Amino acid sequence: MKNLVEVLVKSLVENPDAVVVNEVTAEQSITLELRVAADDMGKVIGKQGRIAKAIRTVIKAAAAKENKRVILEIIQ
């Protein structure tokens, strides 16, 4: 999951070196904390949160195959 989020987000932003994803694992859920540069925050979230919602949809579909629950938090 962590690699999937990194690949998706790094392709969207102008400063891919600033992309950091931390993975916090629990029994049935995984929390991914995404940090990007302040200038790239709008590109990751998108208008009305559409891009963020699309990223969450993709990782939830990938997590469904592993019977896990994934939460993506975008942190500034």
Automatic annotation (TrEMBL):
Q: Which UniProt keywords apply?
A: Cell shape, Cell wall biogenesis/degradation, Chaperone, Cytoplasm, RNA-binding
Where does it localize?
A: Cytoplasm
**Which cellular component terms (GO) are annotated to the entry?**
cytoplasm
GO MF annotation, one = RNA binding
List, in alphabetical order, the GO biological process terms annotated in this UniProt record. cell wall organization; peptidoglycan biosynthetic process; regulation of cell shape
Q: Which InterPro entries match?
A: KH_dom-like_a/b, KH_sf_prok-type, KhpA
Name the PROSITE patterns on file. KH_TYPE_1
Q: Which domain of life is it from?
A: Bacteria
State the function annotated in the UniProt record.
A probable RNA chaperone. Forms a complex with KhpB which binds to cellular RNA and controls its expression. Plays a role in peptidoglycan (PG) homeostasis and cell length regulation.
Similarity comment? Belongs to the KhpA RNA-binding protein family.
How is this protein organized at the quaternary level? Answer: Forms a complex with KhpB.
Which named protein is this?
Answer: RNA-binding protein KhpA
What does the record give as the organism's lineage?
Answer: Bacteria, Bacillati, Bacillota, Clostridia, Eubacteriales
